From TrEMBL:
It is found in: Membrane. PANTHER family: PEROXISOMAL MEMBRANE PROTEIN 2, PXMP2 MPV17, PROTEIN MPV17. The keyword Nucleotidyltransferase does not apply. The chain crosses the membrane at residues 120-139, 159-180. It holds the Pfam family Mpv17_PMP22. This is Peroxisomal membrane protein MPV17.
Length: 245
């Protein structure tokens, strides 16, 4: 009888231990939603760029133009700009992406009655002066060191981007905001308070987005693709950047 009681207790304890290890329903829902977002990006990005995508070993030959229309015309024009003046073109691309993201954040999400012009200029100028320029050099460096678009190369680039570049970028973003607003004393507190939140948001958005980016988008169009996705992410960054430390 004593042995049966011990066995029963052991089974109950094992069941409780196993039950504790089961993922929560909320966690499963979050995982499913992130998987859905990743799948949606994989399906929607080719249509958004007006391209027919076929995985290749080289990102430079991964995209082939299909059909015509305004998207093709824009991409052809952009090709000319980015070939002649790559740094300026990418800086202007990021200016538009950050400006659009802030406008969307202020007027659509926060429903501000009046546009905060200073905040708008802070975001737009950051895109022009820092995001487009640093992105140009960083992604060229990354593609030079890890060429190709095979799964291992893509995973390596995503890992480097999100574990090394993302925290550096967020610190750069908050530092620029503090200097632009004339509040250098608040920079350290802002970095300590919001960097991890910003990086977590980056992981949710940019791990699936950069999987598409590094697998299919040529190096010279990375900033264009990033800013197409970043308009939504910049809403988050605009709101977070405007929060007081």
């Amino acid at each position: 009888a004593y042995a049966r009681i011990r066995a029963a207790r052991g089974s109950t304890a094992h069941f409780k231990h196993s039950e504790r290890r089961l993922p929560s329903r909320d966690l499963l829902q979050r995982m499913m939603s992130k998987t859905f977002v990743a799948a949606l990006l994989l399906l929607a990005a080719p249509a958004a760029l007006g391209r027919s995508w076929t995985p290749q070993d080289s990102t430079s030959s991964a995209l082939k133009v299909r059909g015509g229309g305004p998207i093709k015309d824009f991409l052809s024009t952009y090709d000319g700009w980015v070939t002649k003046k790559p740094l300026l073109t990418k800086a202007c691309t990021s200016l538009v992406g950050f400006a659009a993201g802030d406008l969307l954040a202020q007027l659509a999400l926060e429903k501000a009655e009046k546009l905060d012009v200073r905040r708008f200029l802070r975001m737009a100028s950051f895109g022009f002066l820092l995001h487009g320029t640093t992105g140009h050099y960083f992604y060229n460096f990354l593609d030079g060191k890890i060429p190709g678009a095979a799964p291992l190369e893509v995973a390596s680039k995503v890992a480097i981007d999100q574990t090394l570049w993302a925290p550096i970028f967020m610190c750069m973003f908050f530092t620029y905001g503090g200097l632009f607003d004339g509040k250098p004393d608040s920079i350290v507190a802002k970095i300590k308070q919001d960097t991890f939140t910003a990086v977590k948001g980056s992981w949710i958005t940019w791990i699936p987005a950069h999987t598409v980016n590094f697998a299919f988008v040529p190096s010279e169009k990375r900033i264009l693709f990033i800013n197409a996705v970043q308009i939504g992410f910049n809403c988050f960054m605009s709101i977070l950047g405007n929060k007081k430390a």
